Amino acid sequence: MKVTICAVGRLKSGPEAALVADYAQRFGRTGRPLGLGPLDIQEIDDRKGGGPAAEAALLRRAVPQGAVVCALDERGRQMTSPAFADTLAGWRDGGRAAAAFLIGGADGLDPALVAEADLRLSFGAMVWPHKLARAMLAEQLYRAASILAGAPYHRG
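-> structure tokens emitted (156 positions)
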């Protein structure tokens, strides 16, 4: 199952970009034998403005056809890392060819786009900068693959 992070904004060089690249590579190595990956990152740059509604149109175009869609939203479902791993495995085992994770810009995701998602996922009640959210998601994807592989990375 191909996994795509569709995120508003571009990560330039810096610690967040390094983290995302590292965890994406780890996810690819660990997930590939499990039928997960590679991890593709689609950066959406809405230079024309228009806010979340305009960003939503660009995000929809970045989602692979037929993908299960997960919107990162602070009002979404909170889950443990093992539960997240089980969710990924369920999508994969259910025959989904792709999964797309949506991360909004400074004003969040358009409510209509969030309503269309198959899953709304929260990293807690706090609001996180989109750069950190991307790094946290990449790490959780790697952690999920490690859990499914039985690797010792997750000690929870």
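The chain has a mean pLDDT of 93.
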